[in-house]
Design goal:
86% of the residues lie in helices and 0% in strands. The protein is an all-alpha fold.
């Protein structure tokens, strides 16, 4: 009984230590993740500027930059606090930030291809897929954070692809669903 009681007392401590390590790893990868998001946003805006109202495109780009900046502000605060920072709120805010980044960038197919061609949509989906892969490295320390980023980033455009009129669109949409599944499995593998 004493052994199980001692073990039960250490389980919350171990869980807290795991959370601290997850938050540390997430913050260690954050600058690279923000840089990837911003570079992808700038490239996307440059490639598709002609396909959107410039004010709308500039607003989207500003929103992406604001989300990235908010992440970096939280990263700076965390660096100041160091080991004294409580991991639970950091993990929650990190999840919210990852979801916002995924949602904002997930709007790109709407902003830049609403009247565009199938080729434009396919190119944009390639950029989104590359961000999904980069997200494994950035958010892979916590599966919930990664899924909060990946799903709003990829699913809206994928669903849109399934309903495009182009003959190849449904097949490409199905392939994208498979690709998303592979990314989710990869994130599960990193966790275990």
């Amino acid at each position: 009984i004493n052994g199980s009681t001692a073990r039960a007392g250490t389980e919350p401590a171990v869980a807290d230590e795991v959370r601290r390590e997850q938050v540390r790893l997430l913050h260690a990868q954050l600058p690279l993740g923000v840089a990837s998001l911003l570079v992808a946003a700038i490239v996307t805006a440059a490639l598709f500027w002609h396909a959107a109202d410039p004010a709308f495109a500039a607003g989207w780009l500003t929103l992406v930059a604001a989300v990235g900046l908010a992440h970096l502000v939280a990263w700076g605060r965390r660096r100041k606090l160091g080991a004294a920072a409580e991991p639970r709120p950091d993990l929650a805010w990190f999840t919210v930030g990852a979801a916002l980044a995924g949602c904002v960038f997930g709007l790109a197919p709407v902003v830049f291809t609403s009247g565009g061609s199938f080729d434009s949509l396919a190119m944009l989906l390639t950029i989104v897929a590359m961000l999904g892969v980069a997200g494994v490295a950035t958010f892979g320390a916590d599966l919930r954070v990664y899924l909060a980023f990946l799903l709003p980033l990829t699913l809206p455009a994928t669903v849109r692809m399934l309903f495009e009129a182009h003959p190849a669109a449904p097949s490409m949409g199905a392939l994208r669903l498979g690709f998303i599944a592979v990314l989710v499995v990869a994130a599960f593998q990193l966790r275990g």
